[in-house]
Write a structure and sequence with these properties.
With 103 residues, the protein is an alpha+beta fold. It has helices at 26-32, 65-75; strands spanning 3-6, 16-19, 50-55, 85-87, 97-101. Helix content is 17%, strand content 21%.
Length: 103
């Protein structure tokens, strides 16, 4: 089962590690394990559930058209910061990843 490492939001906060089923939506898997992520539409168009990919971006399913459009819009706010943004409500886990929740 793939492991998701959730980096702490505060620099000294402990990281959390979760095991999810392969092919499971990142948002759904983390929610079932008691980790509540910010969300709005859960359809990939609002961007509330955005996460930063720290490692393992290749271990998520590629973004579809809706997610790609939303990420492009979000990236306008992060110009120059080189953040790898994904939406947890659309990304399915295929292997180990390390993420950080973006607010």
């Amino acid at each position: 089962m793939p492991t998701v490492l959730l980096k702490g939001l505060i620099p000294n906060e402990n990281d959390q590690s979760f095991e999810l089923k392969e092919g499971q939506l990142l948002f759904d898997g983390l929610e079932q394990l008691g980790c509540t992520l910010p969300h709005g539409c859960l359809a990939g168009s609002c961007g509330s559930c955005r996460i930063e990919m720290i490692e393992g971006e290749e271990n998520l399913t590629p973004p579809g058209a809706v997610e790609s459009d939303t990420i492009a819009s979000i990236n306008q706010n992060y110009i120059g910061l080189n953040k790898k943004i994904r939406l947890s409500c659309r990304a399915k886990v295929r292997g180990n990843v390390t993420i950080k929740i973006l607010k």
